[in-house]
């Protein structure tokens, strides 16, 4: 086992996602069995006691890869020297709310956290925002961290990506491993666009393999885009274990890279690719090599896809304007 632990910060560590995420990270799911990890857990003061209980449980697992745990309510202490920051802590939506309803409540969390990361994180810091509204929260954190390269900020659309893979695999009766090149475009919201025109099933174009435009437009897309709400409706609480699993997938891909010939969905700062307004955090198909992501270039976008991407980007621009108006960026 290597000797220097990777320092991973998790915010909202006493919450539902945290309860699944911490144990996965500590057991080596993120960096493998040979890399020790040190957990840095941030919570608000009233949740620290519950977090102490979670740490007792982490101790009780005797994970060989867990090199240490620190907890606290002061971001500048907890983020000191961290290599990865998984920003999960935020208020989840309840039944009937859209994720955008959380902008003001949660926006205020990400400006100070961005500032704290800017001040004390390690030079190689990589930031993943899971807390909703994830894209715009990532924009807020990024805008408040001027010394951290903008490409080190990302938001989670991997859960949507995984949901899309699973729905498509079920429709075609194939294992999920047959599916490659899935893309989620835009916002982690009901406007997101899960794209089957560039996805592949067993090497064949997914839209052609489905051969049913009505299912694609009127079942597949809304099922994926509204899956978060369906889970809230069914469970009475927002997705947690699947969100934790997707957060691990996202951070692991960022570290280990994408397999040859495949890509993943990540929400990252737009450079204007595919006509997505520069500067917003939007989901794209990306490949990752040596810890750096690149937006896949050269995909043909037909009128159907164009309209869907534009609608989601318009929502992100509105969210950006709203947080600008609130003085958060
Ligand atoms: P939760 O309410 O169970 O936990 C959130 C935790 O964050 C709480 O323990 C709370 O005390 C803590 N917190 C609040 N403000 C904080 C701050 N300033 N600093 C540190 N911690 C703080 O919620 P959850 O179910 O774990 O969900 C967390 C977030 O993740 C929500 O915003 C939810 O909507 C979002 N989410 C995103 C995705 C995605 O795919 N991007 C999926 C599922 C959930
Ligand atoms: C999800 O997609 O499950 C989360 O973003 C939670 C939510 O509010 O939908």
Automatic annotation (TrEMBL):
Reaction(s) catalysed by this chain's protein: (S)-malate + NAD(+) = oxaloacetate + NADH + H(+)
Organism for this UniProt entry: Fodinibacter luteus
Ranges where the Lactate/malate dehydrogenase C-terminal domain occurs: 157-321
Positions of NAD(+) binding: 12-18, 106, 113, 130-132
The organism's taxonomic lineage, starting at the top: Bacteria, Bacillati, Actinomycetota, Actinomycetes, Micrococcales
CDD domains attached to this UniProt entry: MDH_chloroplast-like (cd01338)
Family indicated by similarity: Belongs to the LDH/MDH superfamily. MDH type 2 family.
Annotated binding of substrate, by residue: 93, 99, 132, 163
Statement: the UniProt record of this protein carries the keyword Membrane: no
Residue ranges of coiled coil: none
Pfam family, one: Ldh_1_C
Annotated catalytic residues: 188 (proton acceptor)
EC number: 1.1.1.37
The keyword Oxidoreductase is annotated on this UniProt entry: yes
Alphabetized UniProt keyword annotations: NAD, Oxidoreductase, Tricarboxylic acid cycle
Top-level taxon of the source organism: Bacteria
Record function comment: Catalyzes the reversible oxidation of malate to oxaloacetate.
Residue intervals of the Lactate/malate dehydrogenase N-terminal domain: 6-149
Official protein name in the record: Malate dehydrogenase
